[in-house]
Amino acid sequence: MGDADKTDRKLIFAADLGGTHLRAATVDQEGRIHSRFKQNTPQVADAGAIVDAIVSAVHEFQKAAEISAVSLVVPGTVKVEEGAVVKAPNLPCLDGFPLAAALTDQLGLPAILENDANAAAVGEMWQGAAVGCHTIICVTLGTGVGGGIILDGKLWRGVDGSAAEIGHMCVDPFGGVACTCGSRGCLEVFASATAIVRMTREASPRYPDSVLQGNEDRTAEMIFEAGQQGDELALEIFRRMGVYLGIGIANLINILNPEIIVIGGGVVNGWELFEKHMHQQVEERAFPLLRVKIVRAKCGDDAGLLGAARLAF
Ligand SMILES: [Zn+2]
Questions:
Q1: pLDDT digits 0-9 by tens, 102-158
Q2: How far is the CA of 177 from the centre of ligand 1 (A)?
Q3: If you ran DSSP here, which 8-state letter would residue 157 be given?
Q4: Is there a contact between 194 and 174 (Cβ–Cβ < 8 Å)?
Q5: What is the DSSP letter of 41?
Q6: What spacing in Å lies between the alpha carbon of 9 and ligand 1's midpoint?
Q7: What's the CA-to-centroid distance between 59 and ligand 1, angstroms?
Q8: Which SS3 state, helix, strand or coil, does residue 77 take?
Q9: What pLDDT, on a 0 to 100 scale, did the predictor assign at position 13?
Q10: H helix intervals, the chain
């Protein structure tokens, strides 16, 4: 039996720490997911409770498998070399917290941290829509808009770890909507799930016959479903969303000349409603001779977990 046999059996405990859910899985070197785990993220002002939740999940997995490292992705800026969270707007108790060191202390295993959208890009290149590509941009359309950029096979983190904040590219300087980052007119305020809900509310007085009227608890999913049935308000919102997204993507194409742009996150369910408008902007604005493909993500919710595992290997 060679060493290869031994390493084949080693699994990474990969965890995706979201503002709402803590999801985890054990992943092998071929990108196969062995077991899964999901619980609510502890909603406390204490980072210790989050560490405890991860530690007990790892202990549970260790009953069934040998775990060689822990790899965690968080929705925020991280200092990868130090394994510390810089700023996580949805989990403020982690701001400045040395999460990797805390996990290593309690588990005796190596631990690493990465930004969730960066990890999703790595996951899509390893097992998803960008297999075989080396220069890719991944855009995640969720509650916010995240991004990951891989150049010549290397994840581009920037000098402070905050590169690829695609959601905070300005796409509307005049009267643009205020963004949580402090700027105005960012892509995130036009292309996130939050933005779709807001834009629908703002536009609804002009569409008195819309099926979305009279419901103040609309979700992006409900708006998408209305659009599938031909609702004019929903179609107009996804048109606008696609236009802004296309402007942002055209900028990225002109700057980075990627092989492929992968679009993921929950809002990508509305692909059929925004795709045409997005492509139209790209055609009008991006250099015409470039070979870029723009595709839907393939790994779904697992992109971050798979990317985390890949980074740990
Ligand atoms: Zn912003």
A1: 999 999 999 999 999 999 999 999 999 999 999 999 999 998 999 999 999 999 999
A2: 9
A3: -
A4: no
A5: P
A6: 43
A7: 39
A8: strand
A9: 97
A10: 3-9, 47-62, 99-107, 116-127, 188-191, 193-203, 220-228, 232-256, 271-285, 303-312
